[in-house]
Amino acid sequence: MSGRQVDRGRVADVVLAAVVGALGMGVAAFDEGTTALDHTLIALASAALAFHRAAPRAVLAVATVLGTAYVVHAHPGPLSALPVLGAVHTAARVGHRGVAAAGGAVFLAGYVATGPGTQNVAERAGLLAGWFLCAVVTGLADRNWQAYLRQTEQRALEAERTREEAALRRAGEERLRIARELHDSLTHSISIVKLQAGVAVHLARKRGDEVPPALLAIQEASGEAMRELRSALQVLRADEPSGTPALLVERARAAGLAVDLAVTGNERPLPRAVDRAAYRIVQEALTNAARHAGPAKVRVRLGYGTGEAGELTIDVDDDGAADPARPPVPGTGLTGMRERVAALGGTLRAAPRTEGGFSVRARLPLGETV
User: Fold this and answer.
1) What sign for the dihedral angle of Cα 20, 25, 27, 31?
2) Which of 108, 232, 280, 357 is 20 to 30 Å from the Cα of 326, by its Cα?
3) What is the pLDDT of residues 282-302, one digit of tens each?
4) What dihedral do alpha carbons 352, 320, 364, 273 form, nearest 10°?
């Protein structure tokens, strides 16, 4: 889908450049004294618009220089400003307001300086000034609108994620409630049945009587029911997903994220709480990298400390678009990570890196392994 969007954007840029060039050259064809040099300047200034997404400031510079050279040489009408107007709009759209305004001012100064000092030229200059102001304003408005759409989409995703987490939490609480009810009611009743059947069988054998087959069946069935009930209770109480950080890395790679995994120290079984927390931290960090880092490389490092009271170090770094000057607002995921780490007596740092990208570093005390 992203490849199709890029292709469509390039086609749209080429179409824009072609339309602007056709309009400019069509108008120039009706002006007396238009030379091949003028057509070349119009064509090059218009063609530069096809690259405005990759280099908006460079495109603005090229369009301004070529457009100003054209008006100085040919003294055309106001429509000669179309390539520069397009470049000013696209530069303002990506946030280069000052550069966009300067480009428009340079072209306008060249247009006024080379024209005869008549009322007609003054009116045309005023018209062009209004056009350039509109180009800057519409570019800024488009930029703000795109930022609003991205923010709205992010809020919708965060709200959906929060709803999913709340639903999972409620489902887990309901499972635990059912497990308690089953344990308090069925387990007690079945235990009594099994105990009474066992006592009856024991007394019958002690007296030398033949044990009724029905009594043996009750004893065996009650024992089987107890084993099945214990298994069901274990399933209901399993409120955390099973898996390892290595499995999460493989899933992220399959989804298209460039991830490297490195393990240092003596890898060994972890306490259940630490194992669950490590899984969730790596899962959340990889999810955030896939969502916010863009086409970045991610490095996951797990370090097993030595000694009985060692610690597990989890580092997840990416080289994405995070900026230290604009730290992210902690959402539900980062807050959940901090709560898990704090509950285990560990430390967590999640912030943009100085060299760019985002870093998550957690230290979890291991204690005694189980």
Assistant:
1) positive
2) 280
3) 888 888 887 776 677 899 999
4) 130
